[in-house]
Amino acid sequence: MVGLGGQATNDHLPGLAQCHLAELAGVCDVDADRVATAADTYQVPGFTTIERLLQEVRPDFVIAAVPHHAGQQVIAACAEAGVHVLKEKPFATNPHEAAELAGLCEKAGIDLMVTVQRRFHPVYAAALQLLERIGAPYLVEGRYTFHCPDPAAGWRGRAKLAGGGCLVDMGYHLIDLLIWYLGLPDRVLADTSTAAAPGAAYDAEDTALVHLGYDRGLYGSLLVSRSAGPKTERLAITGPHGTLAVERGTAHLLDPRGQTVESLLREPAWPCPPAAQIDRFCRVLDGTAPNPSGPAAHLPHTAFLAAAYASATTNRPADPKEFLA
């Protein structure tokens, strides 16, 4: 386990305890106190550099849950050591980095899987079948919001370290669903804001609105905010025969009047157990399951983000396909 922040301590480490195919072999973080606590709790070796962990533990794979700017170093170190990587999103912070890392993984012969949880949630996968029933989509509306008391706190408040703000962080999940269900848009027009905390020193956007356009006649928008409550997560896709509305762990098929025709519900709806993702990666490494979220699948995500940030800077539409490395 590389990176011992909230994602690791709340999800991955408890998830490893429930895995059928993997067990924890070591922990690593730049914070020596965190390392000492985790090593003592889980009775495994602890390290403050990934190089020492890779050399002394020689794990089959690393779970990387590090700040966005540190991901490249972790993947590069693992590639050099021939160690596979299960990585928290995003895959990379820009298209150049994404292409470089994809090439690095291929050259080293290592597998990498990005932990976009909705790809492993049965409701989101089953929703693809319902999508066929609405006809050719012409409208898509996405919204992912919650209230963070201090958007300036930590590395997430600094665009240089995070690679952006809410769009590259929490918005990555919404972008992943959009690309999974509908493909990469042909045009985006984006606006971003850092106005939620007047006087606070941060430059990573707390709110982003991205208008989308596809040449096949599909249009819409994504609204992402880590400052505007209440907490909501929804993607609605509309066609001539109705709407598919996917929310957190539920999917509803609506007729053109907005009446529910069919629903999918998982109880409990959330979370998608981290253990399921870790065991799936083990099966990927064993060759018994395909990798649904490898490097090549995430090159469009970084292209989308680069186009959105370019659009926000120039106040003009941008074509994500021009940013595909």
From TrEMBL:
What's the domain of life for this entry?
Answer: Bacteria
Which stretches make up the GFO/IDH/MocA-like oxidoreductase domain?
A: 133-244
Q: Which residues form the Gfo/Idh/MocA-like oxidoreductase N-terminal domain?
A: 1-114
Enumerate the Pfam families for this protein.
Answer: GFO_IDH_MocA (PF01408), GFO_IDH_MocA_C3 (PF22725)
Q: GO MF annotations for this entry? A: nucleotide binding
In its UniProt entry, what is this protein called?
Answer: Gfo/Idh/MocA family oxidoreductase
